[in-house]
Write a structure and sequence with these properties.
The complex is a heterodimer of chains A (389) and B (421).
Chain A: H1 2-34, E1 56-65, H2 72-82, H3 109-116, H4 124-134, E2 145-152, E3 157-162, H5 168-178, H6 180-185, E4 189-193, H7 199-202, H8 205-211, E5 217-220, H9 225-233, E6 240-243, E7 246-251, E8 254-263, E9 267-277, E10 281-286, H10 293-303, E11 309-315, H11 326-335, E12 342-346, H12 351-359, E13 384-388
Parallel strand pairs in A: 3-4, 4-5, 5-6, 10-11, 11-12
Antiparallel strand pairs in A: 1-2, 1-13, 2-3, 7-8, 8-9, 9-10
Chain B: H1 13-16, E1 18-21, H2 27-48, H3 60-79, H4 87-92, H5 95-125, H6 132-135, H7 143-170, H8 184-204, H9 206-212, H10 228-231, H11 237-254, H12 268-298, H13 311-335, H14 345-374, H15 389-405, E2 412-415, H16 417-420
Antiparallel strand pairs in B: 1-2
Helix pairs in contact in B: 2-15, 3-5, 3-7, 3-15, 7-8, 7-11, 11-12, 11-13, 12-13, 13-14, 13-15
The chains are: A alpha/beta (389), B mainly alpha (421).
Chain lengths: 389, 421
């Protein structure tokens, strides 16, 4: 009897052990399979949609301003003081949305716009004056904006303004420096494209409205109610297109792509630009490229019909605050595989990144470091770059 | 006067205490859930919420404190058996008094650790990146990023400690020091686990930090690191992911799995060793499995991209997903007495695991749908500055305080042995 019990126990133990071992083996095998090369059989094959966006002959880009702010320490000090990178940008009491004697992190769109709405868009000097007296670090505000002059295959030209800066004073000054004010007033610029809702790309909107309040406006879907209201409050009277996520061909050789992505300071969605240059290839033009330039190139590969990657212009959002993270090295290491022949980067790319690109041997177009741009390692304010056959 | 040598402090307290629900099920569970959520929301608003008072979700500062609170709680209960509190105090103090006093101790230890050990000692005498005041001396580094980088280094260390600290009592059963008295036992295991954590940190996280300070520290660490080709990234998130999986598997083992199947191994040292490395093996299976799940759901990762397709984010998200599974698992153990218990252990094990998985998926879905409104985060999965581990671990910390320090008050009350019979 005792022997039988003992044998019974052993059998049970054996079965239990077998079950536990089998389960462990199964989980282990699944784990190993999950990261083995065999797993790739389950991935769908990437087939490009080959959407034909047409071709253009060339583009010339004028950097109106890439200096979104002038002092990193002040900007990051404000971000730190307000509570970090997730705080709503409209709460900072930065210009233009400041109340009287604005306190850091205590503002709102409603309180700020109430103070300046009366002066938008035709008396920006007055609004700027109020901001200089009441906002948090008003002298630090700059802005991002560039002009893209496109030559179509038939020789005609179209001009696109990408983004409208931040500080009313700085943006207006830069517009005048590059003759954008006159172009807008003469209706030479076909459309204004806003890359995303961030302060340094969008808050200078009334400056564009001052010269051409009817300009067609393209903004990415994902704008918050404050941003949508600001378009109205800034005096815009033209057509507004809220561009849905995905590819949007605009005219031959030009399309935008909206990425539905979350961005710091409570912003959502980014719109970037593709230009297909005949006999040369695709040029990617970006505001901040929060989705990453590699994602932008991969998206083109999956969607657009084009020959090859040719060029890049704009902010690549790698080390905007001259910060670093190992994942940025992933980008630096990987960018070479995409075969860009001409890279005109600036703004949130970061100087340290531009220098790493140069060290890696990438074809970076250097700048002249004028008009408060800090380094020749990338294209500065007033510099131009051309992409043409 | 009590004989010091017979004082057990909290040894076996969690197993021996008798907790009786105040009302029939499911009322105690509902009451405690509401209680936890209210406390969670108030504390979240005060400390973390980007719209709230202190706004520590910068994100790394709040993240660091959240993780270290978890570890200090584990130290207090699992390593030190509530020392210096006597058993009589544990038995007789009101749950609110215990929670107040013991959480205050948690805070004191936390401050000593962060400000004293990491910032003061290590940050001033060993590696500058533990101390913002040292980092700020580096040209070009702003105060904000000096603080963030230092917090990142501390929290990466915390990730390792949150795996090893509970591993020793759960897997190694405190061996070979299990017969020592407190506080010698706690101190010994603490030193042992922190020693191993330091070595693991240097081998897994130091290169990540080294890359931040190009070019000088780049060369004082192994950079690009050895895992670059295998992980498809130079980011230390690769290690954060498997270490988080280890942490969660330790807690699954201790809670809903009741140390099964490891406990069927009769030989003490074999059981301990198999438990310790078995937990790592299971964790790596989850680690690769959840990465693969993301590849199937979103498509393969692309190196150099940001957000959803970035390998570094995918690895981090593996750890984040695992924490979502832990929430229902702990709830099942703390408030549902590890339901079900009526079947054989393998069947119970399986059902509970399924509940944890389904519950985890539900919490995941809820989190990504309501967190922008309730927690002040941004919509979307892959915001580079958002970490679902912060609110989930914050809630877990409160659950641990409620279960360990408060005897599941208010839904339950602790009674004496005689009252239960």
């Amino acid at each position: 009897m005792a022997t039988e019990e003992k044998q019974g126990m052993n059998r049970r133990d054996f079965v239990k052990g077998l079950a536990a071992g089998g389960a462990a083996g199964f989980i282990g095998a699944m784990g190993i399979y999950s990261y083995s090369p065999w797993r790739k059989r389950h991935f769908p094959k990437v087939v490009s949609k080959n959407i034909d966006i047409g071709e253009c002959k060339s583009i010339k880009i004028t950097n109106i301003s890439e200096t979104s702010w002038f002092n990193n320490a002040d900007l990051m000090g404000d971000i730190k003081g307000a509570g970090g990178l997730l705080v709503n940008q409209y709460e900072y009491n930065w210009p233009p949305f400041t109340e009287k004697n604005g306190k850091l992190g205590k503002g709102s769109y409603e309180k700020g716009i109430k103070e300046i709405k009366q002066w938008l868009p035709n008396n920006l000097e007055k609004a700027h004056e109020f901001q200089m007296e009441n906002a948090v670090h008003p002298e630090n505000a700059g802005g991002y904006s560039c002009l893209i002059d496109v030559e179509l295959l038939d020789g005609s030209r179209k001009k696109i303004l990408l983004d409208s800066g931040w500080s009313y004073g700085w943006t207006d000054k830069c517009f005048k420096r590059e003759g954008i004010d006159k172009m807008l007033a003469n209706k030479e610029i076909d459309r204004l494209i806003i890359s995303h809702e961030h302060f340094d790309h969008f808050w200078g909107l009334p400056v564009t409205m001052k010269y051409d309040p009817e300009i067609p406006l393209y903004v990415p879907d994902g704008f918050y109610p404050e941003g949508r209201q600001y378009i109205k409050d800034s005096g815009h009277r033209g057509k507004v297109t809220y561009v849905k996520p995905g590819l949007h061909p605009i005219f031959p050789g030009f399309a935008t792509y909206v990425f539905p992505i979350p961005i710091i300071c409570r912003v959502y969605g980014e719109q970037s630009l593709y230009f297909n240059i005949k006999d040369k290839g695709l040029v990617s033009v970006t505001g901040c490229c929060h989705q990453s330039i590699i994602q932008f190139a991969e998206t083109a590969r999956r969607n657009i019909k084009y020959e090859k990657n040719y060029g890049v212009y704009g902010g690549l959002h790698i080390s905007p605050f001259e910060d670093w993270d190992p994942k940025y090295d992933d980008l630096v290491i990987s960018l070479g595989k995409y075969g860009f022949e001409k890279i005109g980067c600036n703004h949130c790319t970061g100087i340290v990144t531009a220098k790493k690109f140069i060290e890696a041997g990438y074809p970076i177009v250097k700048g002249t470091a004028r008009f408060r741009s800090k380094d020749t390692a990338y294209l500065g304010n007033g510099d131009t770059i051309e992409f043409k056959a | 006067m009590e004989d010091k040598s017979t004082e057990r402090f909290g040894e076996g307290y969690l197993e021996e205490r008798k907790l009786v629900p105040r009302w029939p099920a499911p009322w105690p569970q509902i009451v405690n859930t509401l209680f936890l959520l209210v406390v969670f929301y108030i504390t979240w608003w005060i400390f973390q919420d980007p719209r709230g008072l202190m706004r520590m979700y910068t994100p790394y500062v709040g993240y660091m404190y959240t993780r270290w609170i978890l570890i200090v709680l584990i130290w207090q209960v699992y390593l030190f058996y509530y020392w210096p509190f006597k058993r009589s105090q544990l038995d007789n103090w009101h749950p609110l008094v215990k929670a107040t006093v013991m959480t205050f101790i948690t805070w004191v230890v936390l401050m000593v650790l962060i400000k004293g050990v990491f910032e003061g000692l290590l940050g001033n005498l060993s590696m500058a990146y533990f101390n913002p005041a040292q980092l700020i001396k580096l040209p070009g580094v702003t105060e904000f990023f000096a603080i963030e980088y230092a917090a990142l280094a501390c929290l990466m260390f915390a990730a390792i400690a949150s795996w090893l600290s509970p591993s020793w009592p759960v897997a190694m059963e405190m061996a070979p020091w299990q017969d020592l008295k407190q506080p010698v036992l706690g101190i010994t295991v603490l030193i042992c686990t922190m020693f191993i954590a330091t070595i693991v940190y240097l081998c897994t996280m130091h290169s990540h930090m080294g890359i931040l300070y190009y070019p000088w520290q780049y060369f004082s660490s192994i950079a690009p690191p050895y895992w670059e080709k295998f992980a498809n990234t130079v980011s230390g998130n690769f290690h954060v992911a498997w270490i988080m999986c280890c942490t969660i598997v330790v807690w699954l083992t201790e809670s809903i799995w009741e140390r099964y199947p490891f406990r069927i191994i009769k030989h003490d040292w074999t059981r301990r060793i198999v438990s310790f490395f078995g937990i790592i093996a299971i964790a790596w299976a989850f680690f690769f499995g959840l990465y693969f799940a993301q590849e199937l759901w979103w498509g393969p990762a692309i190196r150099g991209t940001r957000r959803l397709f970035a390998p570094d984010w995918r690895w981090l998200h593996v750890g984040e997903m695992m924490v979502f599974f832990l929430l229902p698992a702990l709830f099942l153990t703390f408030y549902c007495r590890n339901w079900p218990t009526k079947y054989s252990m393998p069947v119970n094990w399986l059902i509970r695991t399924l509940i944890a998985i389904i519950g985890g998926i539900a919490v995941y879905w809820i989190y990504y749908n309501i967190s922008p409104l309730t927690l002040g985060t941004q919509k979307g999965y892959s915001h580079p500055q958002q970490f679902p581990m912060i609110p989930t671990i914050w809630l877990i910390n409160l659950m641990l305080i409620n279960h360990w320090f408060m005897d599941n008050w208010p839904g339950w009350k602790k009674v004496k042995e005689s009252e239960t019979t």
